[in-house]
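Researcher: Next entry in the queue.
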Amino acid sequence: MQHVNLSFFVELGGSIALLKSFAKREADVPFFEAWPPLGDLMEKLSRLVDNGHPIRLETSANPAYTLLTELRGIRQRHFDGPDGVLDTSKNWGASSVPAWEFVVLSIDFFHNVLAAEFTNSATFTVPQRWGYRTPTLILDAASCAELGGREDFQGTPLIDFREAGKCLAFEMPTASGFHSARAVEAILQRYYRAFIGPVPERATMGYLVPQLEEASKAKGVEHPDQRTVITLREIKDLDRNPLAHPEATLDMVSAKALFELAGIAIWRMLNEIDQHGSNGPVKMAPPEG
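Model: Structure for this entry, 289 residues:
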């Protein structure tokens, strides 16, 4: 997946239109007027042809290269000095490019082939989901939950949370829920170690959450916040259990709810882990009453 800045093609079209207008003139085109669209089109064609950015051309690649070669020829004949570098010492107001040089450019051929290629290209738009900005949801979903840039939220959990946001943007709710749950489970194990101790091998949320619920009732010691544990219980009961079954699916509203609950749970767990520091696990004691 690649984010494409559409303004690139708006500007490309503007430069093409100006060069085509020069071809219709009877008088020559002054340097100061010819260079901006000429230089801009050369730069954009170079990015398309040499770097495949912002997209890699297919059918129109050769026409683009031909046009780029022609534009470079105009630059070398009129704008460059003997050293092959743009000569800014020339009197650009008094110097001009003959209009016929724009007539013979293969602009129309490139333009038509590019338009035909775009007609058949796999281009899609992603609508905004609720109040989330689409680029943020796709590229940096952690920012939606105040988790962006945290040193304690990196690696696989961060990747999973980003994938959850991306899947939500692309209307893949079950996949989004799966990644949200995975991100929660990764931080849950760190949370469990901070407050209780080593995590048993292959321990699931079904085992860890009840243990944390007991620890949250401990008196006279630093313990897991009950609000965090309640959120974890909600994730486990309402979302994680159904996702464990292959035939189960989530709708968009449920996936959004899970994504937001996951963000809240992760944010709270990380803050509690940080505040708990090295105080060690809770010494379990039976609740009063």
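Model: The CA atoms of residues 37 and 84 lie 20 Å apart.
Researcher: Noted, moving on.
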